[in-house]
Automatic annotation (TrEMBL):
PANTHER family: PROPIONYL-COA CARBOXYLASE BETA CHAIN, PROPIONYL-COA CARBOXYLASE BETA CHAIN, MITOCHONDRIAL. Residues 267-499 form the CoA carboxyltransferase C-terminal domain. It comes from Gordonia pseudamarae. Residues 9-252 form the CoA carboxyltransferase N-terminal domain. This is Acetyl-CoA carboxylase carboxyltransferase subunit. InterPro entries: AccD/PCCB, AcCoA_carboxyl_beta, ClpP/crotonase-like_dom_sf, COA_CT_C, COA_CT_N. Belongs to the AccD/PCCB family. Gene3D superfamilies: 2-enoyl-CoA Hydratase, Chain A, domain 1. It comes from the Bacteria.
Amino acid sequence: MTSTQAGAWDETLDDLDTRRKRSYAMGGAERVAKHRAKGKLDARARIRALLDPGSFQEFGTLVGGEIAADAIVTGTGEINGTPVVVGAEDFTTFAGTIAPGSNAKRYRVAELALRNRIPMVMLLEGAGFRPTGDHYGRTPTDLLMQAQCSGKVPIVTAVLGPSAGHGALVAPVSDFRVMSEQGSIFTAGPPVVRASTGEDIAKEDLGGPTVAIPSGVIHNHYADDLTCLSEVRRYLSYFPPSAWSYPMPRPDDPDDPEVTGPRDSSELLEVVSRDNRRVYDMHDVLDIVLDTDDWMEIQPTFGQAVICAMGHLGGHPVAVVANQPQVLAGSIDAAAANKAAHFIQVADSFHLPLIFLADNPGMLPGSKSEREGVLLAGGKMFAAQTTATTLKLHLTLRKAYGFGSMVMSLLGFDNQVAAFAYPGATMGAMGAGALSSASGADADMAKQLRDMELAASYYSAEMMGFDELIDPRETRNQLLFALRRGLYSRQATPEPVQRTAIMP
């Protein structure tokens, strides 16, 4: 090409450059500065913090014309070397609202995630649909495509400011949802609430962390944008790009025997009391059993009677569902069961092995628990775990009674790779104390019931109720070896699990 021919492009390329710069400027220097003065990153800075350096490739830059990127920045990039597609609402431009152009971009984000079989990340801070008067007609909505993505590609949402209306609906249809201290999420914001109901309420009280975390709408809460985005990266590190592939071992220490290899678990003798009536912290058990104590808990302050965590065993990503004796003595309430049901479904969808650590006296009884729908929630958890097709491993540490044992995968013919228990573990319809009280047993009968309870693990072992009764010092190695055998048996290429959209 001659210099004359190249020069003919100058005017056209200058025009393109001008239009791009207008989009890159978002709502303008003044609005961006005001936004950042609140301690928040702007949409483009959030994307830079989320993605691997230099990996962002934008699409839809010129959508919206004079309205920069039509108030949402979209594109593809990489997180920990894995391709992802991302959308970040730009609150500095028309409050991050949605118009026909930005609606098309949002749909495209989900469409590319499913087409390319890669994770989808949405960064929310927007006021819902823009009151432009434009008619959307029979146009597709992004939520339609996002529902198609559910269970096929990991979907993660970060709420980093006020999120209302249609945009807010992205979060509850996601697998993992985080919020910053300045985040809030609601069906409609304070002005609409005031006009509709007369209630005068601040956005923090309507849908901030103190509301969204206890309600279960948001899973994890962090101080600021950077921490939220860092935790999104961490969460996705446990997952494969899609349901058409398996999670991979962590790349940093796969051959380090001090981290991923067999080792004695003697510390558990100090952690887990032999007396079933004494509490202990299940977090300490996870610290000992998993490769390192740097595992990630999901919804740590919601449904605390069950711990749901992502970690590594033998370098391989695993999902752990564990009873927490420090909360309700490990009894499973409605919140804990709902949390676990969603967690199990997500883990199963992306072929993460499930490890169940049981130590509970059953589902939480009582009028309050019944009013909260404990049976319905327990049914959801049971359905999730018993239909899971991923590898399942079970260990009863001290006790597992009634339906509480079944939701924790202590059930014969339930397709476990391995089922273990500690000697002295007690199980059955209910504990000896409860049975004695319910039956009006005298002292001699109560003692007999207690003796039978203590011998239950051996009776169960004699009838092949478990694969093996194990010494607590063997815990990590028994789980590790069983996991490795199970991984060896998997089919060469996985397929998505057939189920409806994953919901909280």
